[in-house]
């Protein structure tokens, strides 16, 4: 992996000396693609010498794709072996909401929740009535391993390193980064995506699928719709250089 310098005309964002960051977003249950990216990272780790490597995952680990269960297991195992930061996506928030309120299952279906249920060995009908919803959520609560539940409840909303601000969806323009609301960081789209303002840090995000990494002077979007395209993007950052694979 050879990093090429950013071509932004504005001041280039910079990481502290001696740090390399690997960032991945919106895995959406594509465990096989995630495993492939780990292979790429592991190969690169043999070349970085004494640099401190940090893995940053930007949320939406579940739903839509075929294996949310295995995806979370892979992430947990990765975090046990490498310095890792796990951010919260709107899909993880939805799952936690459903566990507390089974009636939300109907809405969760629209976000790919049925695929997540299936990955834990459950077989929901296409239109579960309230009684089945309650039963499914009770079964799901029992099927999700304790360590996965702890993982889901301990996810962070943001991570800052050097000139970079990592977040799932984006930030609200006009609001200081320190005062950003979690709802915006998990769900925002147009207001953030259409903004050309300098946010104070360079924003690394996902949430809104694009055909290829979208590099702007103030942000980069690395959600390339893995569950639909088969393309899971890996972003590598070091000094003032970035490379998206």
Automatic annotation (TrEMBL):
Highest taxon in the source lineage: Bacteria
GO cellular component, one term: cytoplasm
Matching SUPFAM superfamilies: Metallo-dependent phosphatases
Single GO MF descriptor: phosphatase activity
UniProt xrefs under Pfam families: Metallophos (PF00149)
Residue ranges of every copy of the Calcineurin-like phosphoesterase domain listed in the record: 19-211
Entry's transmembrane regions: none
GO terms classed as biological process: RNA decapping
Name of the protein in question: Serine/threonine protein phosphatase
Organism: Bradyrhizobium cytisi
Taxonomic lineage of the native organism: Bacteria, Pseudomonadati, Pseudomonadota, Alphaproteobacteria, Hyphomicrobiales
